[in-house]
Design a protein that fits this description.
It is built from five helices and six strands, in the order ααββαββββαα. It is an alpha+beta fold. The protein has a single domain, classed as Nuclear Transport Factor 2, Chain: A (Roll). A six-stranded mixed β-sheet has the order 2-1-6-5-4-3.
Length: 180
């Protein structure tokens, strides 16, 4: 299998980095990761993960599922790209500590492919999501992304029981919209 992570740089290791420098490295990695997700540059997304392919993983907590290794990470992104090919991310907050970064965001997209065994509906979906990025402290790459969201909100929209305008959305709250 082709290695998707960047070549490990022996000069990049946490023991020699200050907490501030490590946090800056993490912020840059997460920004690149999200930028690549937005542009659907999948090799670029995979390249933000550790070059230690067996240590990469993606956790989807509401589904109680871990996608292990870089092959699992790729499988996860392939399923999202099929189910919601036009998805977009809006980051609302960022928090970073050495070894972990979190982003609070809204994800929107159109349900144009299979998702968890349900065929395409063509319905718009929006959901608030918290993403935790766990870092390979030897290389500064991602070991993992772990996401939390309300899957019932996603299913209610897919089934037409709720619209994206009805969901919790920080963008509306920040604008002061009454429907927030």
């Amino acid at each position: 299998m082709q290695a998707y992570g960047k070549a490990a740089d022996p000069a990049v290791s946490t023991p020699s980095l200050s907490p501030e420098a490590l946090i800056e490295l993490q912020r840059n990695t997460v920004a690149e990761h999200i930028r690549n997700e937005q542009s659907k540059d999948w090799p670029g997304v995979y390249g933000t993960f550790t070059p230690r392919e067996e240590q990469a993983y993606y956790d989807v907590v509401p589904l109680q599922t871990r996608f292990s290794g870089i092959k699992g990470v790729i499988s996860f992104y392939e399923s999202i790209a099929r189910g919601f090919p036009d998805f977009e991310l809006t980051v609302h907050s960022e928090q970073d500590v050495p070894g972990m970064s979190t982003r609070e965001m809204q994800i929107t997209g159109t349900r144009n492919g299979e998702y968890l065994g349900i065929g395409p509906t063509g319905r718009r979906v929006s959901v608030a999501l918290a993403a935790f990025y766990v870092f390979d402290q030897a290389t500064g790459h991602l070991n993992a992304e772990r996401v939390y969201f309300d899957n019932n909100t996603v299913f209610a929209q897919i089934q037409g029981q709720m619209s994206p305008e009805d969901v919790f959305d920080l963008s509306r709250m920040e604008r002061g919209d009454a429907a927030a």
